[in-house]
Structure formats: C-alpha cells, structure tokens
Amino acid sequence: MTPKTLALAGALILATAGAAAAHITLETGEAPAGGAYKAVLRVGHGCEGKATTAVRVQIPDGVIDAKPMPKPGWTLETTTGAYAEPVELWGETLTEGVREIAWSGGELPDDWYDEFTFRARLTDGLAGQTVYFPVVQECGETVTRWIGIPAEGQDAEDIEEPAPSLNVTTAVTQ
Amino acid sequence: MAVRILGSLVLMLLLLGAAGSARAHAVVTGTEPLDGTVLAGPPSEVVIGFNEPVALIRAQVLGPDGQDVLEPDGGRAGEDGLHLDLPEGLARGTYTVSYHVVSLDGHPVAGSLVFSIGAASASGSQVEDDSAGWRWSFVAARVLLYLGLFGAAGGVAYALLVRPLEPLREEVRRIGSAAALVGLAAAVMALGLQGGLLLGGPPVILADPVTWAAGLSSTFGRAALCAMLGLALVWAGSRVRRTRGADLLAASGAVVALASFGLSGHVVTAGPGGLTIPPLLIHSTLAAFWVGSLLPLLRALAVPAEGTAPTVQRFSRQAILAVPVLLLAGLVLAWIQVRRPGALATTEYGRILLLKVVLVGALLGLAALNRLSLTPALARHIPGAGRRLGWSIRAEIALVVPILAATAALGTTPPPRALLAQGAPADLHAHEEHGHMRSERRLTLSADGFVAEVALAPGRIGPNGVSIALRDPRGRDLDVPEVTLRLSNAGKGIAPLVRPAERTGPGLWHVADLHLAVPGTWTLELDVLVSDFERQTATADLTVE
C-alpha cells in the first residue's frame, strides 16, 4: 500500500461523498389516489456545473393520462407506450398513453432554477404506495440520472441520485 | 480393471471440477502513437489499448541514445489500456517502446512499437526481444515434462492394461521411475523458465527468486506442482518392492500427474465452465497411454520371450480402441481453439496445429502398419518380425518428440479463439471460485434484467483490472448504455470506490487500474443501466489476498 494508492483511495472516497447536496424533486410530494396530480419537477442545478439542456421523465405504471406543459425555449416530445394494465377513464378503456416526456433544446445554466410541469391521473391502485418518476437530466454530453429507487429495507437517504418520489394517499371519498 | 480405470477417470474429473475458466488472451486493440509514426512534437505518453484488463510486468521506452526514458513508475494499466508517461523535453529521434503484460489467463503478452519525434534517427534504438529465447526454452522444458509425464503415467497404464509378464513388468516400473525423474526435473526447470517468460529479461534473472515466484504464481505453476506431486508418487510407487500398495501408489500418482493437464493452458481457459477440460483430459490420458507404451514395447521386443507376442497383441487390441477416442478428443480441442477453418492457414496457432496434424498422420500410418502387418507377423513367428516392429516403434518415438514440441508450442501461442471476443455463459448464482494460485477471481452476479460474469485480475491487493461480460437472463449478449463498478470494504471502513466501466464490445466492459489497498472481504456492486430510466444493481462479496 503506497502513499499514492492511499491518496487515490482517499480522493475517490471524497469524490463520492458530496453528491447528495441537491436533487431533482417533485414540488408536491404527496397526493391522493384516484385524482389528478400536477407534477412540478424542480431543477435547481445542472450536471457537475454544466447547464441543463434536456430533462426527460418516465411516467410510472398506474400514472395515466399524462399531459406535459409546454415550455418556451424548449422542444417538447412525448413517447407513447402501453400501460401495464388497461384502465377505465371517463367510460373508456385506455390501454396506452404517454410513458415518457422530454423537454430538450433549452439551456438552463447551473446557477439558475427552473420547473418542468406535467399533469397526470393517479389510479386508485396506487393508494398507499410510493411511486417514482425517474428523470434523466442531460447537460450536453454529461448526463445525470435521477433514477435511483430504494430497494426493500433501504433508506431513501442512502440513494445517491434518487428518482423524484410521490407518496400516494388513500382516495378522498366524494 | 476397467472399473478401476473408469474410477480413476471419474476421480480425475472430480478433482478438476473446481478448475475454472478465464477469458482469452489479451489482444492489442490500438496504440497511440501508431507504430512507425513520425510526430511533430514530443508526446506526453504512449497508450497501448487492450481488449481486456492486463497487468503491467515491465515496460521500457528507449530513446535515440539507447537510454530508457521511462520513469521507474511511469507505466500503469489505465482505463483504456497501458499508459506509459513520458518525461518532458524528449530529444528528436526515434524511440522504441516495449512492454510485457500478463493477460487474464496468466499468459504473457509482449509487444513493441517505434515512433519518431521530428524525424527518424539514422539508426533507431533496438530493443532486445528476449521473449523468443524464454519461449523456446520453456517449450523445450515442456516437451521434457510431457515425456516424463507420459512415460511415467503411460507406463503405469501400460502395466495395468497390457499386463506384461516378469521380468518385463519390473522393466516397465524402472522405465516409469526414470521418466518420473525426468518429468520432475523438467517441471522445476519449466517453472523458472515460465517466470522468465513472464518477467522478461536476461537469463541471469533465473538466479532471482522473484522469477521463480512469478512462475509459481502463474496458472502453469499450479499445473507444474500438481504434475510434480503425481510424478513423485509414481516414482515412489515404482521404486519400492512391488506390492499391491506400491501399484496403487503409482496408479494414483499417474492420475494426479495426468490431472495437471486440466489446470493450465488455453483449453482450460476456453470455458465455458470447465466443459472443455474433459476432452483435454481424455486426449492427454490416451496420449500418455500410447506414448508411455512405446518404450516398454521396445524393451519387450528386445528381450524375446514366450510372452512377447501376446503382450504386443494385447497392446495392439487396446490401442485400436484408444486411437479413435484420442483423435476425436483432439478434434474437439482443435475446434474449441480455432473455430474458423480459415484460421488454420492464417494464424501461427493454426499453422503449428497443421504441422502437428501432419506429424500425427505419419504416426497413425506407422501405427496402422504395426497393427495390420508387423504385429500379426510377430504372432506368426515370422523371422525378423520383431526387429521390424522394433524399428517401427523407434520411428514412432522419433515422431512423438516433434509432436510434443508442436503441442508445447501451441501452449505458448495465442489461439484464434482469443481473437474472437466471447463471454462465458453465466451461472445464475453469485459464487466465487477460490484458487490459491489463480491470477484472477471470477464472480457471477445477477439481477432481474442481467447476468454478469466478472473477472478481477490478479485479484490481489494493488492494481487490478476487471472485465465484465453481460448477458440477459436468457443468455444473450446484453448491450447497455452504462456500467458502473463499486467496490467497498466495510470491515476496513472503505467507502465504495466508484469506477465507470468502459465498453469494449457488445456486452463487454472493463475497468482498468482499480487499486485495492487492503486485503480482506470487499463488496462488489455492479450498477447496470438496463434501460434509459432503470439501473439495476447486483452485489457479491469478494476475498482479496
């Protein structure tokens, strides 16, 4: 074990430590099942100091009818795919819908803050669960993936780059 | 008798069940600067890319004045291969880079390249390529070792199967013990020469214990120790007064000696999962029987007795059963190594193999002559038949030596298979193959979406290279955008060393220059980005010595 080896090990340990400072998170972290949910992704920094050029979010199973809010200066794209299981909405059976939303072509400097918004419905089956919206933040060539989902028994705090999460509560009786 | 032989074979296979597989030889994928380039200004480093992690043994960069300009710690195995840091202010002229590295299967890979700064020197510096001397000395020692192993183990098999009568039986034991001594001496020599081949350098390094330690710690070292144990048992069993116990001792020695073939070499590393070892053991066992029978047969003919003709006929009958199996196993092994018929002509390995096939063809011709003509003639007491058969057997012996030399040369030549990137099929459970003398550690990790074969070389403290082969759960190559390796040692309070892996091919990744500072149990976590939005992690423990 040379001093060089120790120094290298030390540098690597330090490099991994400072990651948990700020994440991409959802503005509203809790919402009832069976209703509409306005998701606001808060982007407080770029990737390693670089300006954010794209934000992509995956819509998890059980979250349906997702509609992104357009954003001046950003190109909006959605990817449609099959739902995990067909869902009833307004008397119709939906088997597919938006599964991924991408805002790209913008330029959000590291020092600035912005929000990326979409709206969706939370199906009744989600009641009592935590759902995760994995986000890929692109800063030119550099990519930060906010896609970490805690394994069973794992503390969410231990995840380095956690996916934004939403606690779904029991539906409000109407 | 047949039951005992079968039992021995089964035991041998069981002994070798633990022997693992490793990836192919390291192959250079590119260099920077390119060989033969004339550069405008001095480069800051030389990079030699490999298709898999390598460990640096020795490197030098000789300048126009013939002096090595590489700093003592200027060479390292980096992310994308071997990096040699050059000092600033290099003079104009021609530089010669040479390097010796060890690939995952413990085989040395050496190479060199030449580049010039400004303009080429009138006389470029010359790097002495000392590897050829080591290689051929090693091959020669291997031939002697084969002869010793085959003579000793084959002699035991001959005594058991052909059952010569006294005093020829005693003669066979004397030949066996002499062959065992030859093999023992050759194994010791080969250990030192393997070390020299690994380290490179002038012959005087044989006086350095480090050279021997290097030979011993290679995969060949393990095989040589196994061979020596077996040979010592055969020798002991053949020297004492002949009893049932002595015969048993010699027989067990023969089994152990032959088992050494399954512990080292290209076939052993060809994978998958040690499946290639049985044909290798069958091939070497039957070859040992054949080769080891030649001298005893010659002695039987030289001492004409009542039992000579029946003995030779018994051998002939048994050999006719062994030969097709021997050839079939050889064909399987050749296919494993070569894969493409075209490679027979275009690679050095293929050409040596063709030479071996031609020599074996001649040997088979002699065997057919013995079987069809000379042995029946001997049985019919035709005058001169014994003498003619004796000459034919001498010719067989004369052919066996170059065949064994070709075999040993194949062992030091990269097989065409090494040029094809291929991963071993994975096991669904995480496990570690412990091997004290191994120069690598292999692990299989799995998660819902992937199965990963991870090889850590050399698996000891200090710099390590890691190669990763990813498959989907159905066993197909899995191409993913990103793979990250984390190694932590909770016991020693070491937080994860996080290293992104570099993609080297479809489903293939590697991490070079991973420094493991302390021995003990490390936790290896493999983060695989199975899709854009999903990262899966597999974890396994790893013991580092």
From TrEMBL, chain A:
Gene3D superfamilies associated with the record: Uncharacterised protein YcnI-like PF07987, DUF1775
Origin, by domain of life?
Bacteria
> Where do the YncI copper-binding domain residues begin and end?
23-168
- Give start-end of the signal peptide: 1-22
Q: Which InterPro entries match?
A: YcnI-copper_dom, YcnI-like_sf
User: Which of UniProt's keywords are assigned here?
Assistant: Signal
The protein depicted here goes by the name YncI copper-binding domain-containing protein
From TrEMBL, chain B:
Residues folding into a coiled coil are none
According to the record, the signal peptide region is 1-26
Q: Name one GO biological process term.
A: copper ion transport
Any one GO cellular component localisation term in the record = periplasmic space
CopC domain location: 25-117
What the entry lists under InterPro entries is as follows: CopC/D, CopC_dom, Cu-R_CopD_dom, Cu-Rt/internalin_Ig-like, Ig_E-set
Q: What is this protein called?
A: Copper resistance protein CopC
Q: Which UniProt keywords apply?
A: Cell membrane, Copper, Membrane, Metal-binding, Signal, Transmembrane, Transmembrane helix
Q: Where is the Copper resistance protein D domain?
A: 311-410
| Compartments reported by the entry | Cell membrane
Which Pfam family, any one, appears in the UniProt record?
CopC
Q: Which residues cross the membrane?
A: 143-163, 175-199, 219-236, 248-268, 280-298, 319-338, 350-370, 391-411
Membrane association type: Multi-pass membrane protein
Upper lineage: Bacteria, Pseudomonadati, Pseudomonadota, Alphaproteobacteria, Rhodobacterales
A GO molecular function annotation here is: copper ion binding
